[in-house]
Amino acid sequence: MTEQDELRRQWPAESRLSLWRAPDGWQHRRFDWPHPAPRGRVLVQGGRADIIEKFIETFRHLHAHGWSVTAFDWRGQGGSGRLAGDRHVGHAASFAPWVADLAAFWQDWRGEAAGPAVLLGHSMGAHLALRAMLDGGVTPDAAVLVAPMIGIRSPLGSRIGALIAAAATRFGDPARPVWKTRPGDATSGHRQQRLTHSLERYGDEAYWYGRDPDLLLGPPSWAWVREAFVSGARLLADPRLTRLAVPVLMLVADHDQLVDSAAARRLAARLPDVELIRFGAEAAHEILREADGVRLRACRAITDFLERRT
C-alpha cells in the first residue's frame, strides 16, 4: 500500500465520529474534523449508497485549505441504519425524509459555530441539497454540486424509464431490488468504469467494506428509482430555481453513465448565480475520486470558488 493509499484510508487523527439524532429519533453516523483556525465550515454529503469514508481525501483537501469539515451518512445507508427488510437494498419510499434530515442537521450544525457555512453534495447528495435549498431549510453561504443527480440515466430514456419504475412499484414489492447482485466480482469491472478511472480509489471501497461489512449497501429498490425520476423532473421544472440566492459551483461529467449530465446542465442554465465546470471523457461519475488529473482540477476549482465567494 502506498502512502497516498494510506492517507485515503485513514481517519485524520484530529477527527471524530459520533451520532446525530434526527427529530424523529433516527440515529445518523456523523463525522467532524475541526480546523484550529477555520475560514469556515463545509458540510460534505455523498450520494446513494455512499459512506463517509469515501470522502476522506476530499476532507483532507478542504482541511488543508483552512476549512472545518463535517459529514453524515444518509438515513438508511452506511452507518445510519436501513430502510428495507433486506439490509443490502437501498430503499426509499420518498426522498422527503432525507430532505428533512438535512434541514434539521443544518439548523443544529449552523448553530454550533459562527462564520461561513458551505454545503457540498455529490450525486444524490447534490439533488437533496438543491431540494433543501429551494425549500429554505438549508441556507448556505455557497454550495458545490458535484455530478448532481437531476436525472438518472436510463437505456430507454427518462420517460419510459419512469413509467417502468412506476409500474414495478405498483405491481410488486416496491422495496425489492432493481437488479440481483452476483457473487464475487462478476460485475466489478463494469461498475468500476461507471464510477472512476482510478483503480486505486475504486479499491478503497473493498478496503472499507472488508473492515466493516455492515456499511455495504447494494442495488436501489424500485421505489427509490421511481422517486429519483419523479423528484428529478420536479426539480428541473421548479420555478424557484431562478430565484435561488445561493452562489453555486456545479461540476459535471459529460460522459457520466449514472446520472443525466444534460439534465444537470439544463438546470444550471436556470440558476441566477452559477459557475459550471464540465469534464470530458476523462471523468466518470465520481469526479472527486477520479484519477489525479481530474480530481485535482476539481479540488482546486472548489477551494478557489469558496475563497472567492465566501
From TrEMBL:
In terms of InterPro entries, this protein maps to:
AB_hydrolase_fold (IPR029058), Hydrolase_4 (IPR022742), MAG_DAG_Lipase (IPR051044)
Write down the SUPFAM superfamilies for this protein, in alphabetical order: alpha/beta-Hydrolases
Q: Where is the Serine aminopeptidase S33 domain?
A: 37-292
Q: Which Gene3D superfamilies does this one have?
A: alpha/beta hydrolase
The UniProt keywords, alphabetically, are: Hydrolase
Any single GO molecular-function term of the entry would be: hydrolase activity
PANTHER family assigned to the protein according to its UniProt record, in alphabetical order: PHOSPHOLIPASE-RELATED
Name recorded for this polypeptide? Alpha/beta hydrolase
Instruction: Please report the organism this UniProt entry assigns to the protein.
Output: Sphingomonas kyungheensis
